[in-house]
Amino acid sequence: xxxxxxxxxxxxxxxxxxxxxxxxxxxxxxxxxxxxxxxxxxxxxxxxxxxxxxxxxxxxxxxxxxxxxxxxxxxxxxxxxxxxxxxxxxxxxxxxxxxxxxxxxxxxxxxxxxxxxxxxxxxxxxxxxxxxxxxxxxxxxxxxxxxxxxxxxxxxxxxxxxxxxxxxxxxxxxxxxxxxxxxxxxxxxxxxxxxxxxxxxxxxxxxxxxxxxxxxxxxxxxxxxxxxx
Length: 229
Hints:
Layout: H1 2-11, H2 38-46, H3 53-68, H4 72-76, E1 83-84, E2 89-93, E3 99-103, H5 106-115, H6 121-124, H7 132-136, H8 149-162, H9 171-184, H10 189-196, H11 201-222
């Protein structure tokens, strides 16, 4: 605000020069990503019930987002050739079309296997594909087209609202939660960097702050001598 005032006075001729012109703007601290706790993630994943095609798809969407930490754009961009359930790997294309292999946990493998079965994705497939890209898509919408970012976001929101997570949940929060929980359980930060597809380790290091904060919060809540009088 002071910088703006000096600039205005100098522009209006009230000052000979702007004394704040060479003063550097202080850096804005990087925000710490918000992650769900593990109990909240379990509630979310358990909210998908039923064995119909949409239920199978939605379960696979949520399990894949949390289980791999991939971005929503990477999720909806998946093609059938990018998923290898036998090897428990998927191929994600991140920013700048950078390719990386991401491991799949057993819950994600099971959910994807049920969705990719004839009674899952096959039941949502149209008689005639509108576009070749739709035919190759892993995740389909109810019209048989490739699931969009908005469509995947609505899947997350539907079940988040159902279990009371509401405004605190988004696909990116599941990515944050994946990274945070891995670090909580002792994963190496370089491993998490590779998993998330971060170009710089500094981007991943923000999650160590989350884990440290959670550690201190748990300590303060549980240790009888943690609370200062």
